[in-house]
Amino acid sequence: MTTALHATVEAQACCAPLVAAPISPPDAEALARTLKALADPTRLRLLSLVAAHEGGEACVCDLTDPVGLSQPTVSHHLKVLVDAGLLTRDKRGVWAYYALVPGALDSVAAVLATRLRG
Amino acid sequence: MTTALHATVEAQACCAPLVAAPISPPDAEALARTLKALADPTRLRLLSLVAAHEGGEACVCDLTDPVGLSQPTVSHHLKVLVDAGLLTRDKRGVWAYYALVPGALDSVAAVLATRLRG
DNA sequence: CGTCAATATCGACAGTCGTCGATGGCTGCG
DNA sequence: CGCAGCCATCGACGACTGTCGATATTGACG
């Protein structure tokens, strides 16, 4: 599965309803799970560091120093981001290269900007 | 401020200097604080319920039943959302009316989609 | 095969979070 | 004035989270 952000949007976009249906509990749960992965300053910095790194990918040893945390902690945060579908993990030899999942952040942003609007 | 990102260039094959400035720790902290307010299924549902409610506003008594939680818990969640700048609180008589802050969600979405892109 | 380096996993600990019942402060109305 | 209803705050409790050090796993290289 890519992400659980595929909101149940029907193709009835011609007539904007006066009152939109609120988000369903399962959809809220799924969106909250993704947002929980993002709602940590260290993980936001890790995402940004990976994105800004040369080639758009970085390994753990590139990230421990900038965030100033231990290697197991950084590894843990990266796993959270991978499980949330925001990062990919590509192990080449001894090194594990992490990269942004294309469009993942945009999907979250789109849901926030459209699905919760009245 | 331009923090001196001394890029400790080692002789390691995996470490390379950053090519763009990542998000600053204070910015990450601020964004994480907002995302933390959003990263809860109940609060997402409350936001959606308020947005979908007649007139774009709702009081606590309108929300306790749909989310199925106690009144103090709903009140607590609404306070979190107000403190995060996502909801406004307007007390008229005995009732407290909550409404979406215009553009607040769009701002969060924009930061997610652009600031973390690298 | 033995060693070294990069990562992942484990166990533990302090801090935070979501939830509840009880309580108190307000406001409107008899 | 006194009662009733709406809401916020308080105190408590279980659950989850971020962090660490220690340890296990894996691949590269003599």
Automatic annotation (TrEMBL), chains A, B:
Gene3D superfamilies: Winged helix-like DNA-binding domain superfamily/Winged helix DNA-binding domain (1.10.10.10). This is Transcriptional regulator, ArsR family. The keyword Secreted does not apply. SMART domains: HTH_ARSR. The keyword rRNA processing does not apply. The chain crosses the membrane at residues 95-114. Signal peptide: none annotated. NCBIfam families: HTH_metalloreg. It comes from Klenkia taihuensis. Keywords: DNA-binding, Membrane, Transcription, Transcription regulation, Transmembrane, Transmembrane helix. Pfam families: HTH_5 (PF01022). GO terms for molecular function: DNA binding; DNA-binding transcription factor activity. Residues 23-118 form the HTH arsR-type domain. InterPro entries: ArsR-like_HTH, ArsR_HTH, HTH_ArsR_DNA-bd_dom, HTH_MetalResp_TranReg, WH-like_DNA-bd_sf, WH_DNA-bd_sf. Coiled coil: none annotated.
